[in-house]
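Input:
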Amino acid sequence: WRSRGKLQIFQYQVLKWALALFVGLVVALIGFFSNITVENIAGFKLLLTSNLMLQSRYMAAFVVYIGCSTALAAAAAALCAYIAPAAAGSGIPEVKAYLNGIDAHSILAPGTLLVKIVGSILGVSAGFVVGKEGPMVHIGACVASLLGQGGSRKYGLTWNWIRYFKNDLDRRDLITCGPAAGVAAAFRAPVGGVLFALEEVTSWWRSALLWRTFSTTAVVAMVLRALINYCRSGHCGLFGKGGLIMFDLSSRQATYTATDLATVMLIGILGGLLGALFNFLVDGILRVYSLLNEKGERYKIILTVTISVITSCCTFGLPWLTTCTPCPPELAGKCPTIGRSGNFKNFQCPPGHYNALASLFFNTNDDAIRNLFSAGTHGEFGVSTLLTFFTTVYTLGILTYGVAVPSGLFIPVILAGASFGRLIGTLLGSISGLDLGLFALLGAASFLGGTMRMTVSVCVILLELTNDLHLLPLIMLVLLIAKTVADCFNKGVYEQMVRMKGFPFLEVHAEPCMRSLVAGDVVSGPLVTFSSVERVGTVVETLRHTGHNGFPVIEEAPSAPAPELCGLVLRSHLLVLLQGRIFTRGRAKTSAGEVFRTLAPFDFAKAGSGKGLKVEDLDLTPEEMDMYVDLHPITNRSPYTVVENMSLAKAAGLFRVLGLRHMCVVPKTQGRSPVVGILTRHDFMPRYIRGLYPNSIPR
Amino acid sequence: WRSRGKLQIFQYQVLKWALALFVGLVVALIGFFSNITVENIAGFKLLLTSNLMLQSRYMAAFVVYIGCSTALAAAAAALCAYIAPAAAGSGIPEVKAYLNGIDAHSILAPGTLLVKIVGSILGVSAGFVVGKEGPMVHIGACVASLLGQGGSRKYGLTWNWIRYFKNDLDRRDLITCGPAAGVAAAFRAPVGGVLFALEEVTSWWRSALLWRTFSTTAVVAMVLRALINYCRSGHCGLFGKGGLIMFDLSSRQATYTATDLATVMLIGILGGLLGALFNFLVDGILRVYSLLNEKGERYKIILTVTISVITSCCTFGLPWLTTCTPCPPELAGKCPTIGRSGNFKNFQCPPGHYNALASLFFNTNDDAIRNLFSAGTHGEFGVSTLLTFFTTVYTLGILTYGVAVPSGLFIPVILAGASFGRLIGTLLGSISGLDLGLFALLGAASFLGGTMRMTVSVCVILLELTNDLHLLPLIMLVLLIAKTVADCFNKGVYEQMVRMKGFPFLEVHAEPCMRSLVAGDVVSGPLVTFSSVERVGTVVETLRHTGHNGFPVIEEAPSAPAPELCGLVLRSHLLVLLQGRIFTRGRAKTSAGEVFRTLAPFDFAKAGSGKGLKVEDLDLTPEEMDMYVDLHPITNRSPYTVVENMSLAKAAGLFRVLGLRHMCVVPKTQGRSPVVGILTRHDFMPRYIRGLYPNSIPR
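Output:
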């Protein structure tokens, strides 16, 4: 069914582009909506508390603050625990695994999408040290997946054209656009989004994708811009200019000296070390939490509420430790800030003074970052303030990730990094002339490089956030150093999580242990093959009793002089063929034409997740079970094969680069069975191989 | 020789990074040097002419102007024609072909590098409508190639560590860093450079490369910045701020209306059309020129000088047609410009007036672009001025590309696009409120999208040039439209040239004609195989009489029951083995240990281009010719194989995605010779396949 008419090709092309652009539109709308909602809920919470503070009713303020936060946190946790457990966490590892070819259950289901959106809004509003950027990536992938399936069949939202998209390749391509759109919407960084998808998320990349993801993110950028312009005129409640993060740093500092460079390198090294430590601790805390979370949904909620209370206590309690700072006289109009967002929070201080710690803690995360990045504000935050904030955020960031709430890592890492950078800048102020806002930016870059180990995409995202290209060389330098340092200790945080969740992820580089093995060594278990014309009963029985998804088809005696490999047949195609009931009494070939008179080519298209035929759905009479079915029309006649003595590492490379699900292993010498075995993704997992050869292979 | 010690791995890693960073350093220095030289030579030429003009000695000025230009052009053409013909043109198609796996002669030779640098400086100074950006890409690749070979062996500049780099993969990776560094140096666009390498130049991409090219371009950015700061203090002759293009547009135009968007779309559509036309005409003119150029070096020089004279006449003559414009009173200090660069050229006009056309023509190309991009200068250029300039530049751009001078296409396309955009902006000024400088930028984007068909990289390069992220959505929109429109007509200009130069380029998508063929169909010619232990004379004779580079090795009767495929052996490895003279009297196996006692593994490493052993270099006695050589130690035991009935399109995909040079075709049925044939790159060329099956396959 490869030969399509011109009209079909045109439909396909139009659909491909329309879907890509539509993904951009939907993701932009969701991103905007979630931003507005967070700003309004969090803003309302802070406003309520601030008003009580102004009346000096501190205890009431604390109760309101902690009550709101806990309620929001509990709601988010309940959603995640009971409705869609897959929505907890960042979602980036799951999307990464999916694009590596792992169809894990319910990762991209409609329920997950819904909980992810609502849960992320609630979680961020609850004041957790989490971001909505990671979840946006997952949301983007979910939206793309649902659109690619033509909505949900359950709700009758199918469209006939969509059938062109029911295959792995097109679906994967479309789902690649999703994360790009998500990052573009979260950071307003369209180029950064494309690079993020390229660098961090996808396992296969074609240059055609660059072009398509780019147009998706262009749509996101344009839609967001239009909506923000609309909101500027005050239609969006408490939603201010600051809603979608875009930090206009614009320090325009064109020169720097050798001392400055040394400081920058120091930030890179320390950022790399602290980033690696962060990864290590997050890994540990996730293991502890997973023990708790396994005990049941109730424990998940309790854990979340506990962390929420700790967070609220920190953010409300710590500012009391610091003394009030008098407002700088030249900023009399702006300090202290009376409204919701701003650099100088009054908190418990008398008029004309501000509380530096409260300006960071008692704010949304976006505003705190903006305060840290702000240029030309040298004396605003003291060493002790920054140190307290950095320690708290670093610890809370580690503790919070892993609770049952959609939680992104970008914001905690940027917050910790920015306060760290500003701290270093304040300490070294005497020997370096760089602005403290720039220090904060470089600190954020070093932490991002140290934890996520992305380079180009983080660099571009930061540039798009700050809108100042003059900083490029410094950011690049910091990122390079931080990543290099951190790579000495452990892997990036997302890779670590992919591994911890046990996804059978195909790495780019084969493990060293594969070098000394050949493909034939890992083939195991009884090989199940079909004859090219097979008894229906045999097929059904086999499908019932094995979980395999691909079966080699062997051409046997009457039609070939010796048994030879005819091809590979997939479980899903077999089921459709059996359902079609094109059987013959004896072993006879059926012409392809006859099959396709009964079944349309699109009946063989890949169904949405969890929607394909199952062997239990077949309802064949005993008489039919005794008939024969010709597998030729549905056999893939040229499967990829490797000779059994090919190096396993080489076979793994081939498997990965072609994005296969099955690979036939053929014998080296003639006169044996024409196929020795089938390799699947699981046969390349290092753990499995070490299990087979525990002694011979050094770890 | 896969098992390396820890020290060797460390040496390899250090070397890999050191080379990548060193490429950045060298390319940045070359880029900076060529910029300074161009600015000084061209500046001196313009200064001389301007001074004569001020004295009203117009005829003398013309003679000086045309004389300088022609001399420079003739020098550049002579260099290209006699010393390194490969240095003519942009070089991007050649680099692209090289990274596709085509080792074309002398593309990356030291001579080519030298001529490219000097020729590009001379060509740009001569006033041709060419850029130095394309050549910088080629220069970057040459530098990377030479460094990767450890300098030139001819001049004794080898280094022992470099031997780790003598293989295709590492060399290709390093050469990928070159073009990225070239773009980064030419445009001061480090992120754009990485994306350019990714999108336009490479055929294979691994995510490790993103990281390495990124660090290369980071070095470029930092070195350039340091050098420019040094030059700001006036150490670089006439070299001004404008040397390395960076157009600070910064219009900060945050809002636009629906009418503006419609105008922008119009620019995109027209840009796409004109871009496609440009490609079509360039293709035609290159065919005409190649007929001329084939006649000999002298014709090349004559052609170049002719075009140079035409260019000089246009740039000097056309400004006379326009009338003088009085300077706007608010710019009395800046108009007319007395010095070299500036918006308002006096030319033949009385004091207090400026000649608009001369401000564009009578300038270096970089300054002309800067004038066109300049914001807030509404009345500066009239419709007729812009129309004249656009037509001339568009025509000259087409005529100039293809003469024997290193010539980049970026600058002509940007010049034509910017004047086109400004023209549209001036015409539609009444209905659109966008700035004319922004119109020029969008016009340039549309032309770049229409000719080169790059998207993300052009977008990022333009952003880095103009340093204003607010323009991103508009640029993206224009690029998308222009590329889509132009793709309806023809291919991108670089792909077109790759095809015209007859490189056997492996496309990503297989041609439709391959769908109906199988791998066995295109295997042709007598298959040359070796026995696993072969007579030396036979090997030498075979190597002498065939041009093949890979030979299947067949295990025969004594060691195997039936002939079976043992592996694949390469010509270069055979030659090294023969040179080593490890022969036996009878058909006996030699142990690998014995071979590697005589020959070090690195003797088999790939030599630099044109430096490998040749079969004529072998000097074997007749007695030795009668002895036997065991090919096992140098045979690749697991070559990639396909079954003869695999679809040719699928085989082509496999060949391309794995980056192979040889692929063995094995028979489907048993009992035949164990290998049917070998597929090489040439067997997948559409032209070759059409030659084999002229009738059966529709074009």
